[in-house]
Write a structure and sequence with these properties.
The structure holds 2 protein chains of 2 kinds.
Chain A: E1 4-17, E2 22-37, E3 42-46, H1 53-60, E4 68-73, E5 76-77, H2 83-89, E6 93-96, H3 110-121, H4 126-139, H5 156-168, E7 174-178, H6 186-203, E8 206-211, H7 214-220, E9 223-228, E10 231-237, H8 238-243, H9 248-256, H10 296-300, E11 306-307, E12 313-314
Parallel strand pairs in A: 3-8, 3-9, 6-7, 7-8
Antiparallel strand pairs in A: 1-2, 1-4, 4-5, 9-10, 10-12, 11-12
Chain B: E1 9-20, E2 23-35, E3 40-44, H1 51-58, E4 68-75, E5 78-79, H2 85-91, E6 96-99, H3 113-125, H4 129-142, H5 148-152, H6 161-173, E7 179-183, H7 191-208, E8 211-216, H8 219-225, E9 228-233, E10 236-242, H9 243-248, H10 253-261, H11 268-271, H12 303-307, E11 312-316, E12 319-322, E13 341-342
Parallel strand pairs in B: 3-8, 3-9, 6-7, 7-8
Antiparallel strand pairs in B: 1-2, 1-4, 4-5, 9-10, 10-12, 11-12, 11-13
Helix pairs in contact in B: 3-4, 3-6, 4-6, 6-7
Classes of the chains: A alpha/beta, B alpha/beta.
């Protein structure tokens, strides 16, 4: 059985207006998203800003309360849990945030930040906690002597390492990595990617790796899901998705990535226009106004995610 | 690119300093490069390497004091750094214009798009308000903004990020500049929008035959857009090369490190999951290491790298590298090769 199974996950944010705060509509941030992650596997979740990828990640942790759907984690139904039960499950379900500058409390020193989950979940002596924190810091490439320093004394890459150490503190099974390297410079980005890969091998971790950079996602993931306007439009293993993209959006997205090789001249599919507002998504297939292959049916009917053999899923009428 | 002509822009020994309470920050520390007519040159480096400050120094968009700009910047036969404030204003936006990174913050929120684009035409070309407005609408059409007349009357907050960057490009191109300084023009945008903007910029650049200095940290964009690349690190030029040579045969260990750090789609199969990272972090501009600035992170550093600043070694007309390993000097243990000249 899969470690994490998400089925028909929906999150609609109400849009309120007026002094009575009447609901005048919904932003469909996530609309019927389903996927699963196996133990020790990395699933990449890519998409452009506003496609709902971060909302999916936060809904799994219930940092955002989903509207409906099912989330099964390690055999438990996450959405039926509350209070103490949920708190206990979260020990094995952690998150690394995008912005290492705002996700660490500036008034706590590094030792306190990393010790906080341990204090909350385990009853062990202060000496043992300190030992564990020192061990975690070494594991992520920080010096334990820096335990008494504050976040502002660290560089972006080092802060991201602090965030990783905090996520690892309770030996989790799954870590949601929400754009963990996009705020970092390329040379530092490579260090953090290597660290995440190495930790995965050592601890048999599973990752949900959320990012907008297709090359980074390809590098770290075994399977990749592409999101557009609240839906998964394609899901396949990394080799298959990048070599043989079937959805027109995936094709355009991949063709838009600049290749760092001046000898390669590739044909680019340039999408017209911007991503439509999720407040008022287009009828039929949400991608049809920008699609270079659209046909009549795309305007009328939503496309369902279907399997095309070999575990390659795609939501397109033309397939 | 005509090599026999004098370069359009020559930057010589540019130093930009910011005195701070903690000491002097040498953001740009002795930078030289040339830009020829019509060519696209990439200026690459990580945050804090001085690439943006170089561009701002060219147009003197830094408040001086506190900033101190020294050196020579020749453009059209005159030294821009010797010009009076009023004289440099005539060049900004007309002969040299700039595209800024953040389309959200670099447009004035209380002026309409049309007002902002027509300002250049009014100031530099002396157009009447009405004529300049029509020109602005025409520019918006050229950057493919739908319903250009309506959009010209709107304020920046009503436009999406991609549209704002288009407006920014319209503004930069409105006086047909000879040189555009594009500072991370697509960094804040999504990939599909980035592709639109790059495509547009490339097409308009050909149309008005302008030269572009493309400042970016994205080596993918460099590979696709630039013909020549200048790599910067900690305020200095580390390497310069024609784009194909840089990617095929990078000579500076820092360039090699940068190229090894980026994940490339499809390469995982051959190289495995481990990227070739550059260890350590960029040094603080207040505490530059002795000798070569890259030596604490350099896997190939030798003794002299820790003691003395490396020479700029010329390997060809547009090929130079700032590294001891390339210097031909019999006293050093460096594996020198070929007849390299030292500047």
């Amino acid at each position: 059985m899969a470690l994490l199974e998400v089925q028909n996950l929906k999150k609609y944010f109400p849009v309120r207006k007026g002094i009575l705060s009447r609901t005048i509509g919904f932003v469909r941030a996530v609309d019927r998203v389903s996927f699963s992650i196996e133990q020790g596997e990395t699933l990449g979740l890519v998409g452009e800003s506003g496609c709902g990828k971060t909302t999916v990640g936060r809904s799994i942790l219930r940092l955002i309360e989903p509207t409906s759907g099912q989330i099964r984690f390690n055999g438990q139904d996450l959405l039926s849990l509350d209070g103490e039960e949920l708190r206990r499950v979260r020990a094995s379900l952690q998150i690394i945030f995008q912005d290492p500058f705002s996700s660490l409390n500036p008034r706590m020193n590094v030792g306190q930040i990393i010790a906080e989950p341990i204090k909350n979940h385990l009853e062990i002596s202060p000496a043992e906690i300190k030992e564990r924190v020192a061990h975690l810091m070494e594991k992520v490439g920080l010096h334990p002597e820096q335990m008494n320093r504050y976040p502002h004394e660290f560089s972006g890459g080092q802060r991201q390492r602090i965030g990783i150490a905090r996520a690892l503190a309770l030996n989790p099974l799954l870590i949601i990595c929400d754009e963990p390297v996009s705020a970092l410079d390329v040379s530092i980005q490579a260090q953090v990617i290597n660290l995440l890969a190495q930790l995965q091998e050592q601890m048999n971790l599973s990752y949900l790796f959320i990012a907008h950079d297709l090359s980074v996602v390809e590098h770290i993931s075994k399977r990749v899901a592409v999101m557009y306007l609240g839906n998964i439009v394609e899901l396949a293993n990394d080799q298959e998705l990048y070599r043989n993209p079937l959805h027109p959006y995936t094709q355009a997205l991949l063709s838009a990535v600049p290749v760092p090789d001046p000898e390669v001249k590739k044909k680019r599919i340039i999408l017209q226009g911007d991503v439509p507002s999720p407040l008022n998504p287009p009828a039929g297939c949400a991608f049809h106004p920008r699609c270079h292959k659209r046909e009549d049916i795309c305007l009328l009917k939503e496309a369902e995610l279907q399997v095309l053999g070999g575990d390659h899923w795609v939501a397109c009428h033309l397939r | 690119m005509n090599e026999s002509q004098a370069p359009l822009l020559s930057v010589r020994d540019l130093h930009t300093r910011f005195p701070t309470l903690d000491g002097i920050v040498n953001a740009v520390d002795g930078v030289d490069f040339d830009i020829h007519r019509g060519e696209t040159v990439g200026l690459v480096g990580e945050s804090g390497c001085g690439k943006t400050v170089t561009a701002l120094s060219i147009l003197q968009l830094l408040r001086c004091p506190p900033a101190e700009i020294q050196g020579r910047i020749f453009f059209g036969g005159q030294n821009l750094l010797g010009l009076h404030r009023e004289e440099i204003r005539k060049i900004r936006g007309q002969a040299i214009s700039m595209i800024f990174q953040e389309p959200m913050t670099s447009l004035n929120p209380v002026l309409t798009i049309g007002d902002q684009i027509s300002e250049g035409a009014r100031v530099h070309e002396g157009m009447t308000r009405q004529k300049a407005w029509r020109w602005a609408v025409e520019m918006l059409r050229r950057v493919q903004i739908p319903e250009a007349e309506t959009r010209a009357g709107e304020y920046p907050h009503k436009l999406s990020g991609g549209m704002r960057q288009r407006a920014m490009i319209a503004m930069a191109l409105s006086c047909k500049p000879q040189l555009i300084l594009a500072d991370e023009p697509t960094t804040a945008l999504d990939v599909t929008i980035q592709a639109q903007i790059m495509d547009l910029l490339l097409r308009l650049k050909e149309e008005i035959e302008t030269a572009v200095v493309l400042i970016t940290h994205d080596l993918g964009i460099i590979a696709e857009m630039a013909s020549r690349v200048v790599v910067m690190y900690a305020g200095k030029v580390m390497e310069e090369a024609p784009v194909k040579e840089l990617f095929k045969d990078p000579r500076h260990p820092y360039t090699r490190g940068l190229l090894g750090s980026i994940p490339v789609i499809g390469r995982k199969v051959q190289t495995g999951r481990r990227l070739r990272e550059i260890p350590g972090v960029v040094p603080s501009l207040l505490q530059m290491p002795q000798g070569c600035r890259f030596h604490p992170r350099c896997p190939e550093a030798i003794n002299i790298c820790r003691e003395q600043e490396p020479p700029m070694v010329r390997l060809g007309e547009h090929r130079r590298v700032n590294c001891w390993l390339e210097a031909k000097n019999p006293q050093k243990e460096a594996p020198a090769s070929g007849a390299n000249g030292i500047e």
